[in-house]
Amino acid sequence: MQTLTSSQVSSVNLPIRMCIIHDHPHHYRLPLFEALGRSFVLSLIYTSNTGGDRKGLELPPADGYGLFFLTAKSYGDVLGHIVPSVVAFVKCMFRLFAIRPSVLILHGYSNPACWAGWVFANVYGAKAIVWGESNKYDLPRKAPLEFVKRVFLSRCQQAHVYGRSAKSYFVDLGMPEKRVFITQPTIVDSFYAGKPIERVVTPSGCDTKRVLYVGRFAREKNLVPLLDSFSEHLRHFQNSKIDFTLVGFGPLDDELRRRVKMADLRSKCHVRGKVQPRDLPALYAEFDLLILPSTYEPYGLVVLEAMFSGLAVAVSTQSGCVADLVTSENGFTFDPWRKDAMCATWRAIESTTPDLISRMKAASVQRASQFTTNHSADLTIKAVNQLLAREKMVPEGDR
Hints:
This protein is of the alpha/beta class. It is built from 16 helices and 13 strands. Strand 1, helix 2 (30-37) and strand 2 (41-46) form a beta-alpha-beta unit. Helix 4 runs parallel beside helix 5 (112-124) and helix 12 crosses helix 15 (354-368).
């Protein structure tokens, strides 16, 4: 059976109506939506217009698909609240009756709007595909919730995931391995919007290691223990060449700034505020290495962004991207639950020579450059076409 690429699907004389149900806008998903919009009659339903503490993050306009928002509340104000969840469920169901999609992509199983899509697909015969980012290292697992996930997946025809750890988790939940497709993240080529990459070159003879954390200032990011380990490192390396900067936003903002001040880290550690997605390339260009110390992390797209921007990486073993992105050639991995492991990582960074840092940065670019939006779109479309062809939704001459 011959499947179709993104360039071939548009020539099929049978419009396939696809609807994606998502929680709220994420800048890294938009390029994929635009690519799918060129291949299918695409509608996108967002439960909310923001993700709570992500308010104020700017997004480019939608292009090539229908766009609908179900509620004016932030996603955090919908999830786990009965009335907003019911409203999202009912509004999504009405919207699906108007769209009548043949293929439904459901972003996870916690979103009440996705459950509306799940019901619609099972009652009216649409094909249901779940997009999953969870992995076995993610949140603590509870048997009743795992049972609900198994029920949800049992009535979906495919699962599309970012990487190997997520695929393993979905197979453990009962999804047959042949129905779980790794379609990879979709950030790289769109991240710079076709502009040349302007990487900041470390001055000759400078052996300072400029280390960056960028993301949410939240408990699961493990930033307080990371700061403690950095403080201990500086006590043993009083002439340390590491300069550490945290950039982001979230509930721990005040606490992080206070700890930096109390530990007298201000000469070696700096806390900066929120950065818009459009400004991330310029931010990454200032640094040599990104560190992500999360105790749970579904994937860690920031690692891919940083690698493409020419940074070496130090990544927690609890991050879903580790198996797909991080090697000894481009970075370090460490156990985020152990302070001694984080201290050892700081020592490894400290002892890395400028030449080795340069080689690691080059290896990062080489690895990350394999993850393009067009390739991800083709993987997604290929998986969808396998499903449609099996169900005889693709014309006979195009198989």
